[in-house]
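Office hours follow-up: a student asked to see two folded examples consecutively, so here they are.
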Amino acid sequence: RGARRLALHHRVIKICKAKKNQAELGDKLLEFTGRPDWQEPTPDDLPTVVIAGKMVSKEGVSNTKSVFILTKDGETTYCNVEELVRDYYKDQGLHEGCHAEGALLNSLLTLLFWDIIYLSETPDAFRDPAQSAPLDWDTDDFYASRKEIIDERLKEISGMSKDELSAEVEDYFVNNLNVSSMVSWDLLKEPEYIAGLLGCFEPSQLALILERMIKDHRTYRSGLPDLTCWNPTTQELKFVEVKGPGDKLSYKQILWIRFFMSIGVTAEVCHVDPTGSVHSTGMKVKNARTTPKKSAQHTPKKGAKNK
């Protein structure tokens, strides 16, 4: 699996760069990184933006979510880091959007493959009428036992026009609304909302995303970006992975962003810098910023006092 491969590559780098191993394994690292199947495990190649956010002090409490203060048009609200970033992209012209991680794409996947998922005559896939997914959904057998019809469906989707794609999804949405399934019905709102999103995809791009998911859903159901932002008028679309103070990208998240970039879909990482942190009462807090990354060791000047 891709994420495990990245983790292994990361481990290789750490072992080879360890001081005790540099003499013996230094050349080996060059050999490993020169392999055609080598993938860089760090996110340095990913498009990244950094925005500032005024964070409420956690007052020494650990393991709690960060809360930010958002002031706009004279009104102040408290929000989580995803809502703060969502507001930032609204100001960039991406007026529509949602914080859904994989739920949005999984819903589109389910609607466009509804007949294959729920109506194909695969033995023992369903044993209960209230089942929301076939029993083999997150196994390798799902694709293997339906390979021909899935491949054919992917070709159909890739060859559709944007209007045909929207009409297809609307048809499945209207005819199956609120049926127990893997669709997040509340998230999709209404057909016009879905059509605005689908208009931002080239059908061939969406087909590649759905192919990646339906062939190995167990692997690719996670790691999808936090935010999906779009503008139905300009047909601009952007997937955004949000990282608050101290958060790091997982290997699966790195792989998904690289995949989107490889097929021409815009995706990026947005880090939130907690500048100007304040107490919940509104008082500014000293030293409220998160601990910076370790840099080269600094030797204090002679006579300097510890603070």
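And the second, which I mentioned at the end of office hours:
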Amino acid sequence: MSAMPSYNLGNGVTMPGIGLGTWQCSDEEVRLVVLEALRVGYRHIDTAWLYKCEQGVGDGIKDWVEGGGDRKELCVVTKLPPNANRAEDVERLLNKQLAKLGLDYVDLYLIHGPMGWKNTGDDLDMFSADEEGFANLDNETDLVGLWKGMETMVKNGKAKTIGVSNFNEKQIERIIQSCEIKPANNQVEVHAYFSNKGIVEYCKSKGITVCAYAPLGSPSRGEIGSLETRSLNPLEDPVIVELSQAYKKTPGQILLRHLLQRGVIIIPKSGNPSRIKQNFDILDFELKAEDFDKIEKLDKKQRFFPLLMGMKERNPHPEYPF
């Protein structure tokens, strides 16, 4: 049994290499999911304002702490929504998020994406359309100014560390050139069909940790993404199925172990108690070099999450990252 990989984010925060994702969970479901995950041994919980389940995440953490758990053992991550991508909006949103989570601080606070959307006055209305049905984008997004608002959250103790999600190299480089506090993490799409090697290697070269969302290929993503990607499911790939039989592990465990060996943090999501445990139980085996390479060769360079939410644009956003 190998040790859980962990990554130093700075400011006293250590991020375990395996975390729990919470996208597509209701408050009621996620409360039970978080509690079960914490009982299994997870200490890294990932959520977001966009997921609309921070209340349930906080309730699950509270249940665990009341049962004897220690909040200080946890790495809790949440994200600033795209309709608050202005420096003056950051503290208002984080205050709301901390209230929902029932926490005094989060361990890592991420900008969920570089593209700003206009705020309609309702912070829950994240992907609004204008009167003609076009995406209501905020084309004046200032990432350098926004980052200064994020840095203020560290200075006032509401976030221990800060980072980004879905940012490209040029966007991160602009922040690095002007920041007081360097991004600790970039959360991006990574799975067997989308290795995303360019941004992964860039971040590692800059001392920025990488967390993979959709590490299993997000089989429940529905109609997100292009038509040609909707039927793609790495869990059903013949190579993965064959390896799962050879190692006597599930296809999911093979996919997750591969990313762990790439030095990428993973946040698989499941509402199924047995699968929550399976996703965590990947430290008792290691993929042989030749099998690791077989999975590397599955890369189709196919992004499943293009970030446009299926809405038509009047003009491309100047900070669209892909």
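Two things to take away from it. DSSP finds ten helices and eleven strands in the chain. Residues 87-101 form the longest helix (15 residues).
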